[in-house]
Q: What sequence folds into this?
């Protein structure tokens, strides 16, 4: 029933001026401090920026149209218990958000750098493979940054059966395909923000990994000032150990598993290789 009524409801919201439109942000990326180990920073003294016209206790959910680069716009909802899912989440693997890359690092929980991040979490509105609600986000942003706020809203709504205005705006720089972060706002309606009230910027980053936001490509984070010089190693692709070229273990290595590598030691370790215990490369 929800899927059949949603297009009509969205059309009515557009006519009423309630659909998510391009927003004039109250901040710029230049105002956001560099990531320093915390997944988010407060915006506007943690006060959300909903206008009087946007405040309602009627449940709704709206999602911005993809732009010319295939990027998501703001997702906006008044979350009520009636919007929450009553079944397990379905597959979302068919959606490839802008900047999507499949890449794994040992330093990432679960290995995969990127998740298909819901702007409005599944537990709040039950959206599955909605391309207007999924962005390329790091595991760190998804779990450490966004999930605690999603859980806060979900728990509040379930416990009180009240409503929460909830808006997530992906923040892109220029024509970047991957968002630099997201603005998350939440405000509980019936108690005027006493139960839920936040306005935060969540960094779309991953400790230990450098991200090219223009394309979504990534590499292990360089350590130190200018980065270490490239060095040649011999890899055993079966044991996932790396050796100095003159290591005695190289001569006994199966040729099919032997591979020459030139690059940084840190990059090899990030890819899951361990140094040989004999030559200690």
A:
């Amino acid at each position: 029933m929800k899927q059949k009524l949603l297009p009509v409801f969205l059309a009515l919201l557009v006519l009423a001026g309630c659909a998510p439109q391009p927003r004039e942000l109250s901040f710029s990326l230049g105002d956001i401090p560099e990531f320093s180990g915390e997944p988010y920073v407060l915006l506007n003294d943690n006060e959300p920026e909903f206008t009087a016209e946007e405040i309602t206790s009627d449940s709704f959910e709206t999602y911005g149209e993809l732009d010319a680069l295939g990027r998501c716009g703001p997702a906006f909802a008044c979350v009520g218990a009636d919007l929450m899912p009553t079944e397990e989440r379905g597959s979302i693997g068919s959606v490839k958000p802008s900047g999507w890359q499949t890449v794994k690092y040992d330093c990432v929980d679960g290995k995969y750098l990127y998740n298909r991040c819901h702007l409005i979490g599944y537990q709040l509105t039950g959206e599955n493979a909605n391309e207007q609600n999924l962005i390329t986000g790091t595991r760190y942003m998804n779990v450490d940054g966004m999930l605690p706020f999603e859980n806060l809203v979900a728990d509040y709504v379930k416990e009180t059966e009240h409503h929460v205005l909830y808006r997530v705006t992906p923040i892109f720089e220029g024509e970047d395909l991957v968002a630099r972060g997201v603005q998350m706002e939440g405000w509980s309606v019936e108690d005027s923000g006493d139960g839920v009230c936040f306005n935060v910027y969540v960094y779309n980053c991953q400790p230990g990994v450098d991200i090219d936001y223009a394309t979504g490509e990534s590499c292990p984070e360089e350590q130190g000032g200018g980065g270490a010089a490239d060095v040649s190693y011999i890899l055993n692709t079966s044991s996932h150990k790396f050796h100095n070229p003159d290591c005695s273990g190289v001569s006994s290595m199966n040729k099919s598993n032997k591979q020459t590598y030139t690059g940084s030691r840190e990059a090899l370790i990030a890819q899951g290789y361990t140094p040989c215990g004999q030559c200690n490369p």
The longest helix spans residues 139-160. The radius of gyration is 23 Å. The longest strand covers residues 164-171. The chain is about 20% helix and 25% strand.
